Amino acid sequence: MQAKLTEADQNLEAANAKISQLEKVKLRMSQEMEDLVIEVERVSFIEKYNKSYFTKVRINEFHNQNMEYN
Known about the structure:
The chain is an all-alpha fold. The protein contains one helix and no strands.
């Protein structure tokens, strides 16, 4: 009976150690996910800015070309 209790206690300790390890991994992954979300938002903003900027540049170039022909 004592051997079974000792084995169960060891299994419980091993399970608790695994839980602790998994919680650390979960925290790290959560932080990495947050960093990735921030990076995606940053890239999305830059893409929108560039699209708007280059659209304005093309409009200005088109306008300037038309002014040259008039």
